[in-house]
Amino acid sequence: MPQMRPLDPAFPIDRQLAVDARNVVLVNLFTLDKADEDTFLKAWQDDAAIMKRQPGFISTQLHRALGESPAYLNYAVWESTAAFRAAFMNPEFRAKLSAYPASVVASPHLFQKVAVPDVCVA
């Protein structure tokens, strides 16, 4: 099971899950030992397959850091925190967490788009 390290220790994922919001984005930064990359990728692929079947799932994308850094960023779009919360608590998903190598540290955080005039829309 990956270790959990919040991006914002003052407002970790368990507190974020209690906030009702629509159109949320999960950003999850993974750090791990380089030797564990293949095992990590297989575990993430299995998790993504489970999440893709959950109500409210929209999309996901995994990014790898450039160069020698074995860091990965998962970006997943959900209809709501309620949908993500249900998927995150799904027993099938929870059971698969043990497949992650011990070196994996996950830092999940939920976000919403922000409108900035003349730059981007929400």
TrEMBL record:
<protein>
    <submittedName>
        <fullName>Antibiotic biosynthesis monooxygenase</fullName>
    </submittedName>
</protein>
<keyword id="KW-0560">Oxidoreductase</keyword>
<dbReference type="InterPro" id="IPR011008">
    <property type="entry name" value="Dimeric_a/b-barrel"/>
</dbReference>
<dbReference type="GO" id="GO:0004497">
    <property type="term" value="F:monooxygenase activity"/>
</dbReference>
<keyword id="KW-0503">Monooxygenase</keyword>
<dbReference type="Pfam" id="PF03992">
    <property type="entry name" value="ABM"/>
</dbReference>
<feature type="domain" description="ABM">
    <location>
        <begin position="24"/>
        <end position="114"/>
    </location>
</feature>
<dbReference type="InterPro" id="IPR007138">
    <property type="entry name" value="ABM_dom"/>
</dbReference>
